[in-house]
Design a protein that fits this description.
binds fe (ii) ion; globular; mainly alpha; 8 helices
């Protein structure tokens, strides 16, 4: 049996669990209590496919999901900056918490992408709108906040590195 602690997927799953807790903390900063509800049908189908499909298919779906995550977290952070501009302490807490999520998510995108051939990256690009459609179907609040068009545009841009660029958590620190 392989050592589960040597499997990067195990760490990614742990990080995803922690992201929910971090989001809970971010909401607590503005006095909102969060309750985690069961995932919708599209999300359940997607997660099942990620678990049961062969690695290459599953990685394509995971990449789409991770890019959707980066796009949505970036939009949420921008919305928080807009809404809490007059509450600098709460906003600073939200910024610090979102930075932790964003750095992880960008890492997930790079990890999964590194496992895909250029042809499968192209497949992921084609499938991304479908994954986004499913996620937006299950989380209509996202559509109400940002609109489908804006979410899809942000996802299509898929500029994941620039979303994490402001954060200092880096393996290599520029010397010049
Ligand atoms: Fe992720």
């Amino acid at each position: 049996m392989t050592d589960p602690s040597a499997d990067p997927h195990a760490f990614i799953q742990i990080e995803e669990v922690y992201h929910t807790r971090i989001l809970e903390d971010a909401l607590a900063a503005i006095g909102v209590k969060m309750k985690v509800s069961d995932p919708g049908v599209a999300t359940r189908v997607l997660v099942r496919a990620m678990v049961h499909m062969p690695d290459q298919v599953s990685d394509v779906l995971v990449l789409c999901g991770e890019i959707f995550g980066v796009a949505v977290f970036a939009l949420l952070l921008e919305k928080a900056r807009e809404l809490f501009a007059a509450q600098p302490r709460a906003l600073a807490r939200i910024e610090a918490l979102f930075a932790q999520i964003m750095v992880d998510e960008v890492g997930h995108v790079h990890f999964v992408r590194s496992r895909l051939s250029p042809a499968l990256v192209r497949v992921a690009r084609r499938m991304a709108p479908l994954v986004a459609w499913g996620a937006m179907r299950d989380i209509p609040e996202l559509v109400a906040l940002f609109g489908r068009k804006r979410i899809m545009e942000r996802m299509a841009r898929a500029d994941v590195d620039s979303e994490a660029a402001p954060y200092s958590d880096r393996f290599l620190v520029p010397t010049a």
